[in-house]
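We were asked to recover a plausible sequence for a given structure. The inputs and outputs are reproduced exactly as logged, with field labels preserved.

PROBLEM: sequence recovery
POSITIONS: 231
GIVEN STRUCTURE:
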């Protein structure tokens, strides 16, 4: 599904990602972990084309997308839920979703019933503006907005950040359901180890822009966590 090979990404003159390589298979969930500033968000932004890699290659379904514009990557099947969620505050829940459909170039830009099947809490507030939603509601809207684009690859940047435990459980169940029911792979950046261990097939740990460890989630032992993740 996704093959990232030896990418180097910069912010201006700052070298953030160093020869990073990563694979996400069909229907697989891979988690990326690391301390603050390790380059996790930069990796996702490189895959989306928001911060393109300077060297190396990124392939989606064997198509080289390394130099492709961000909107074209969306059309090919990459949907991104950023850490800040980026809900448009003055648009309603429904309008936020309709805008995502428009960005994908879908002819029917009405909110599909599938959204309320996965996110029933959004249906009674479909006419409410995004700026007045709770953190949990905004996160559900952000994932719903990505999901209506029918992605092949869903990128999630810390979807549980700042959420209360009951909402984290809801997000966890939604991600599991997406993996089980839709033809979609997931690349997840996350800090909660229990969350990662429960839903992940494989993991990678970034350390100062380098891949420091990766493998099957069963290899994400306490010793690995202590070595690479604990401050």
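RECOVERED SEQUENCE:
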């Amino acid at each position: 599904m996704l093959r990232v090979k030896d990418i180097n990404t910069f912010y201006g003159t700052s070298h953030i990602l160093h020869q990073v390589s990563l694979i996400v298979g069909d229907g697989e969930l891979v988690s990326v972990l690391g301390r603050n500033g390790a380059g996790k968000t930069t990796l996702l932004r490189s895959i989306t084309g928001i911060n393109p890699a300077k060297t190396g290659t990124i392939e989606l379904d064997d198509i080289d997308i390394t130099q492709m514009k961000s909107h074209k990557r969306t059309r090919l099947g990459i949907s991104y839920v950023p850490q800040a969620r980026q809900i448009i505050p003055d648009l309603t829940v429904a309008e936020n979703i309709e805008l995502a459909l428009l960005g994908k170039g879908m002819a029917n830009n009405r909110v599909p019933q599938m959204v309320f099947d996965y996110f029933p809490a959004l249906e009674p507030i479909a006419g409410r503006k995004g700026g007045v939603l709770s953190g949990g509601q905004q996160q559900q809207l952000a994932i719903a907005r990505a999901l209506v684009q029918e992605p092949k690859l869903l990128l999630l940047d810390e979807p549980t950040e700042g959420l209360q435990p009951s909402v984290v459980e809801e997000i966890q169940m939604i991600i599991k359901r997406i993996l089980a029911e839709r033809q979609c792979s997931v690349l997840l950046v996350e800090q909660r180890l229990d969350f990662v261990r429960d839903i992940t097939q494989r993991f990678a740990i970034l350390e100062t822009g380098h891949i420091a460890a990766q493998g099957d989630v069963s290899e994400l032992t306490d010793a690995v966590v202590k070595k690479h993740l604990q401050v």
